[in-house]
Amino acid sequence: MSEQGGSLLIAEFNANFPYDYSAGRYASYFFKQLKEKKKIMGIRCPKCQRVFIPPRPACGYCFVRNKEWVDLGDEGTLWGYTIVQFSFLDPLTGLERPIPYGYGFIELKGASTRIQHFVTASDLNKLRIGMRMKAVFREERKGSLSDILYFKAIED
Ligand SMILES: [Zn+2]
Predict the structure, then answer these.
(1) Which protein residues have their CB within 5 A of the ion that is ligand 1?
(2) N or C: lower Cβ tally within 10 Å for the chain?
């Protein structure tokens, strides 16, 4: 109701705004390697030797351009995690993700930074900080971080 006592006009419509944007030179190379070769690439600072993942054009510590790509393999260490118990919409799919599931920080061998991703083990309660993890890739990859389904614990 407006102040004059009239009713509001409501117009319903479904807005569809598809768009694409450039991932940039560094992220494009990173995603292309992930899609085509199942390679997880980092980039090394020529001055301090830190290896960044995801790759970035410049080292924030040394302010120099990063140029040397490094194949980090598909194994790393679990640095922290949580087991998600509350269901919500997965922004990658728009669908509710089945619970429970693990989400954590993984430091790939040779990297100086960590990436966040889904994590799992034969039993989620077996997840522990310091565990060795291995990336599990999708069969059909699109060139996005979701080309990695999750990191799974390497258990004895
Ligand atoms: Zn540096």
Answers:
(1) 45, 47-48, 59, 61-62
(2) C
